[in-house]
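I am writing to request your help with a piece of structural work I have in hand. What I wish to show you is a protein chain and, alongside it, a tokenised description of its three-dimensional fold. Could you please explain, in whatever detail you think fit, how the structure tokens follow from the sequence? You will find the record immediately after this paragraph.
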Amino acid sequence: MKKSLFFLAVLVLVLLSGAALAASPPVFETQELPDGMAGVFYNAKIVAKGTGDVKYTLSYYNDGTSGYPAGMKMTSTGTLYGNPSSPGTYEFVVCAACGVDETYKTYSITVKEYDESKLARGGTNPAIIGDGTDSNVGISNALSGGRAAMVGDTIYFINNKGLLYQSQAPFEKPSLRFKAAAYDLMDARGNNLYYYQRYLNERGTAEDYSDYKYVTRIARDPLGDKGRSTLLELSQKEAATLTVTGQVILFIKGEENGVMTRIPLEGGMETQLHVYNCGREMYATKALPYKGYAYFIAENDGHLYRAYLDGQLAQKLTDMKVNSFTIARFSGRDILCYTNEKDELYASQPDGLLAQRLGDLRGTMLNADSDFLYFLDKDNKYRPSRLRLPEFDKVEQLSDIAGDQLYVFEEGVLWRKRKARQFYFIGQGAAEAVRLNKE
């Protein structure tokens, strides 16, 4: 009997201690928050420790306000982020909840005036920007759609269904590289393909497929070897303009307002490029990395800008809206080439200075190699053409087959037939193009 009473007492103590433990409210560990700058992206995290998962919310006053800076948000995990709209000192209350137990703490953020001198210009980290020896061959392949790459004598291309094919010279019969879909935004470096991929990882049972689990990732595909690797898993379903340098992979997140993002070439932590011009954060619709810079068309105004891959300041390069752009070469120098809203061709220094129109030429899908500027000639039914700078009056037509995408490689030029799905390739010095696929 005594033994039973003893065990009962122990059980009661355990239950009481567990109840006391469960009743402990979270304890805030974060005491202060860093200052911010008006218009500049802010990111900080509030941490509170509890006996379980802690969820964070803002507390609101009776008039519906919280005191939190306009332009910013707070997640349920305690991350504060966004672009504070106006300078000032903002005081607000955060609630940390663990089950039914809550605790509150007042925080303040001082948002200072926008000051461009306090932002990093960049151009100092060679592990990110490289050594300035990037090749310009096919530099704008991503801007054409990123649906093709070439390694050695093999072309890899993505069809309209998102399937990845490969075709080896003489390009008579393509074959599926993998049966699974869907692929997009491909580039190559060395003997590796890099691409965006979304695939079914686990089948569910729901008729509406709501419980099917998909994986979205940026992957490296080592040609000739097995074992693809995931460089970064993504939460969004879409991305844009993926390009690879010797140091980083640059892409645009498709569901986050045109934020350029870079990851190390070998994979790892992503870094968002928050860049600014005249007090505004600049977002991108198209972007490519070259010699340490990210050149991009701004979603804000449609103009062309550039910013160092390790910097915060964006330099405006054009005073007009731009449809396409590339970096061509002339006499060992880089030449920035672009088209305006009317598809008229222009050329300038890489910093945008000394801009001039290239005669009366009009075109789309600009691209380049070390010798030529390539484009789809709008005044010649969008046929693939090229010219040597500065001889813009001597245009060479490459084929009678019109295109809507244009890819350049050391070995030749590839394009997709206009208003169709077939890819065509013409090798350097070849007289005629070959068709890669029938669909």
Remarks:
- The helical segments are 2-22, 126-129.
